[in-house]
């Protein structure tokens, strides 16, 4: 059984983990297994498996609070054609900036398991789970192949015995339920709403009996339960009929009452002889109403009880018009608000007019008097700096507050030689010692600024006394009343620490990202081998200076240059390969070496030929050609063009060839000149018919 002893995060995995802590998505993409052995490599420096054999999709991902996640896959040998020892395993993830990376790696070494090829007696299927630490990363995802997701036996057993099954919403459809399988005990109280009932389903039997209360004390309303609505109706019946029971017959019906009202003389024959007006409350002119009466109100007859309550509105703008008592009072309230400056007319003012007048009189009496300046009862004059002299308050004045604020509300100076910076949360200025806990690395005897306005968050800024470094951090620590922690120290880069060796790692340079590929609008960066990949290269170097300097003499494939050694292709003889007569019959064809399979198309005997074509530099129709026959007896021909047409082919005389030099003439013993020798020495050897020419 392979022993992997846990997975180790790679360097790129640690970087991605830091990005996830800052809020980036931690997205796992796949597993891979291989048979590579560690031979001194450092696991954190690996960018991939040493010898990968299989790529496995992720089929499950679940978090394991507080800071871990379980990522799983399944390995089977159905696609394995050649057996191997599963010695290494890697988990891959997507970095939002550079793409897929090797996130974590493990190697079983000598304990590796053999994975047999498919088609044999061994059918292998293994579940692989990795527990990875994710810290406080909150957005963890994975690319999961749903077709490979299945539950393990332990998960099925846990699902079967769970007290409450958790299925996706709307996954249990009507077709999945047996007929009449949902009984009353399975339905939660008040779970059936109005939209779940069929029209007409609420029959009298379903609704059941209700007991109405005609004496209900609940206030009337247009919305209520069935019982409440019936109770209000019965109570209203009682109010209409005036009976104690809503079912008692009324003394008169509404129809009878209307007929009585509509009658011309409903009270005919009944004289009004009784007194209808009570004069005891101040009304004059009492008596019966058989004749017109003029009523008047006695003095003081309208008491508070008769006038009743009124509501004052202090937003009514005051005007000089006559108005009702209520509006007049409202206008007075508006004026009171304007005088006091308060939001409501009934809110007491900050100071009474009488007190304000007294204060003004006091200030007037304290006006500047040169003779009594800074004297008891006199004016307190300002000094040349615009400040009150100490004689006003006396020396060493020590107030409990300044401007109504305690000393904790102002930044103070502190000397903290050994204090832990995690505990310093009061706003102020701190002089640090040589070894303060939780200070930035390398900062000694520096200065600390703490900013803690209010609430449970705080910020610290630190500078060193003998360096240009500035650090800052913020947090929500318990010392400030928070429930979190301090964030890590961040270094501030500035003009004093920029350039080579500063350690600055920026996302863009002048707005451009870095890329090792040929991505448009990016800054070119070297790849792992030190090379640069680009879409194109444009040189603006002056003519005469090399735009590219190449030290290697290696062959460059697919390099198509405009010139070679300063010469264009049209000025260099090239191998043109097999061509037709169209090319070779053109005086302006490119200078070069060609093949033609049928010499008869260019005026020669039918056969294969090597042809050298030489075009004039002016490209004006002047050219020459030399043709060498493949299978003949060493024949060679040449022809030239005079600017418009080709001349006839001429056969070249060669040693050992059959070219005729001199035709047979009468009286001559030889028909062919076999060899002609030219030499400065005496002839030697030779055969009959040879011609020897000696020249001085």
Helix fraction, binned, reads 10-25%
Low-confidence sequence ranges: 271-276, 659-674
Please give the largest β-sheet.
Answer: 8 strands, mixed
Per DSSP, the total helix count is 10
Q: Radius of gyration, rounded?
A: 56 Å
Distance between the termini: 99 Å
What structural class should be given to the helix and strand makeup?
alpha+beta
What is the strand content? 15-25%
Structure write-up:
- The longest helix is centred in the middle third of the chain and has 16 residues, at 226-241.
- Among the domains are: 8-151, no CATH class; 203-249, no CATH class; 298-346, no CATH class; 409-492, no CATH class; 567-653, no CATH class.
- It contains ten helices and 28 strands.
- The two termini are 99 Å apart.
- Strands 1, 2, 3, 4, 6, 7, 9 and 10 form an eight-stranded mixed β-sheet that branches. Strands 11-12-13-14-15-16 form a six-stranded mixed β-sheet, with no helix packed on it. Strands 21-22-23-24-25-26 form a six-stranded mixed β-sheet, with no helix packed on it.
- Helix content is 13%, strand content 22%.
- It has 696 residues and is α+β, with helices and mostly antiparallel strands.
- It is elongated and about 180 Å long.
Features:
22% strand; 6-stranded mixed β-sheet; single chain; alpha+beta; 8-stranded mixed β-sheet; 696 residues
Concise summary:
By secondary structure, this protein is an alpha+beta fold. 13% of the residues lie in helices and 22% in strands.
